[in-house]
Write a structure and sequence with these properties.
mainly beta, binds FE2/S2 (inorganic) cluster, disordered C terminus, single chain, 106 residues, globular, Ubiquitin-like (UB roll)
């Protein structure tokens, strides 16, 4: 069986209707779908970077995508250093960018 012969409604990778959600990123609403990670929501919205490095301010977003590199960390609902590639987005999550080093901490 190939995916080309499967009707869209019977695709097991997409078994049901989308359940939309909204997260708030730096004060702006960003739409997503239940089941997506925060990184997935951000990437789906066209955002490729949401953090900078402490050494030279280089932009970072998803690098490994599996929770190993910590390049994707964000603040979620006041909790710092949350890996966006692992944290499943919840409707109403408040996400803020964060820098990597102490100089970025207020
Ligand atoms: S992208 Fe590497 S930990 Fe999230």
């Amino acid at each position: 069986m190939t995916s080309h012969r499967m009707p869209a409604g019977s695709d097991p990778a997409r078994p049901g209707p989308d359940h939309p959600l909204t997260i708030w990123v730096d004060g702006e609403p960003v739409p997503g779908t239940a089941g997506q990670t925060i990184a997935g929501v951000l990437l789906g919205a066209g955002r490729r970077q949401w953090r900078t490095t402490s050494q030279d301010g280089a932009p970072r977003g998803v690098f490994c995508g599996i929770g190993v590199c910590f390049d994707c960390v964000v603040e979620v609902n006041g909790l710092r250093d949350v890996r966006a590639c692992l944290r499943r987005a919840q409707d109403g999550d408040v996400v803020a960018r964060q820098g990597a080093g102490p100089e970025a901490t207020p």
